[in-house]
Amino acid sequence: MRRLYVVLGDQLDLESVLDEAFDPAQDALWMAESEEEARRTWSHKARIVYFIAAMRHFREALRQRGMPLHYRQADYATESSSLAALLAADIQRLKPQQVVLMRPGDWHVRETLRAAIEACAAACIEREDPHFMTTPEQFADWAQGRKSLRMEYFYRELRRKHALLIDADGQPEGGRWNFDADNRAAFGADGPGWVPEPETFEPDAITREVIAEIEAHYADHPGSTAHFDWPVTRDQALQALEDFVDQRLASFGHFQDAMWLGQPYLYHSRLSAALNLHLLNPREVIEAALASPARHQSLAAVEGFVRQILGWREYVRGLYWLRMPGWLEENSLQAEQPLPSFYWNGETDMACLADALGQTLKFGYAHHIQRLMVTGLYALLLGVRPHEVHAWYHAVYVDAVEWVELPNTLGMSQFVDGGVLASKPYVASGAYISRMSNACRECRFDPRLAEGESACPITTLYWDFLDRHQARFENHPRMRMQLRNLARKDVSERQRIRAQAQQLRDSV
Ligand SMILES: Cc1cc2nc3c(=O)[nH]c(=O)nc-3n(C[C@H](O)[C@H](O)[C@H](O)COP(=O)(O)OP(=O)(O)OC[C@H]3O[C@@H](n4cnc5c(N)ncnc54)[C@H](O)[C@@H]3O)c2cc1C
Ligand code: SF4
Fold this sequence. Notes:
- By secondary structure, this protein is mainly alpha-helical.
- It is about 50% helix and about 5% strand.
- Helix 3 packs antiparallel against helix 8 (about 205-215), helix 6 (about 135-145) crosses helix 14 and helix 14 crosses helix 18.
- It is globular and about 75 Å long.
- The site of flavin-adenine dinucleotide has 27 residues, from helix 11, helix 14, helix 16 and helix 18.
């Protein structure tokens, strides 16, 4: 054999994996289901199902095309093996002269696979992943010498480079780079009303078999597979994209930050996992959004969506490769609390958290504001050890791949880097959740109160957070207002809040 092309579970796009040198007469593809990968993080069962079901459907597509493929299906009878050990065994067996590895989406996986290939004395050819619109090297060039690495400036450069939403005179369409300010609406008191249901996909025979295996072999893992309805093939992913663009994109931007109890998807796309497994290409997703009538109905919606894919998605990946592995060790706020156990079962009296955690365990999904301003916010305010927060987010969402999960969790949500990704910590009191959802109406706590029996734990912890970190943020221009409000509280009130916050920590 001349070359063995490695296809990882989040690289299910043949056009990206193969280069022009691929010759089916002397080369072959290699895929493996690694149990150790599923266990390395205590993955939600639906997350494991998603990866394995998508891989097995991809295997079928490759077989139908007559591609030479070595596929290692999970063998639950023998001891679980790491991806690196499985690859090493097959290199010994197949003896390829070269192993072609497309950059994995996980720092640890990349290191271990490269080491395994080298240990087998095969040449490792590493390719950049053409699925993304920016390479880590291009991002590093952009970041070089900059004092501040804000997403907004990176995004504007990509808009110009790819001529997306740019007028003939080189100016941003609609006269603004960013319609973020138009994208923060809440629903009225009566709620969202009718929202088009997203297209869902009933598990076929292949997926049903995977579900049965996962239920049998990962019974102690969190989450449910009973509601699994995600797109696991390219055709299904394209259907999901078309459905989103036709049905929900026009309202996506406006209600991007809004929440409503029992409504997990609202106007969100549900496309992240399909994108992260490469069933969809970011370019085609952007093109579909730009070609849709929604562009003329609401430029703010379409720009908001393009910003998530072209801006945030590419930006967090660039930062991941720039900052790993050190990012994993940072803890700028010295957070040392354990993660509350209710994150794993959703059992809490806090209505906002119970809802976000409940749907996470049920579907493996929560939208961005639920992740950032409910589950992430509570962990940040409580002061949970970043490692534990990262392990939880990596485990529970069907779209979790480390290059995107880690920057969002550690950088954006937990501020571990002291302001590299986010200019300030995303902190708010219960008043924010009260404004953006109906959760507080259904809760036994009162978002206005920081002390006493009915005090909202988020509000208590918010003031306590500002109190604990006052010295650090007092000269921060974007936190001045919050600290000015804290200064209005007298010494005894602040002491009482501190004591109540401590009780919350002690009860974890
Ligand atoms: C703490 C935390 C952890 C997160 N973990 C993940 C993760 O493991 N995997 C993941 O894909 N996203 C993650 N995100 C980003 C974002 O929340 C999800 O991409 C989004 O909720 C997925 O739902 P959707 O497809 O309906 O997205 P939509 O709201 O419809 O957004 C459209 C698309 O934009 C992209 N996008 C939006 N926001 C971001 C972002 N901040 N970073 C990168 N891409 C973005 C996604 O591809 C998404 O599918 C995380 C965010 C936070 C705050
Ligand atoms: S009162 Fe506090 S805990 Fe209850 S739903 Fe509102 S923000 Fe959440």
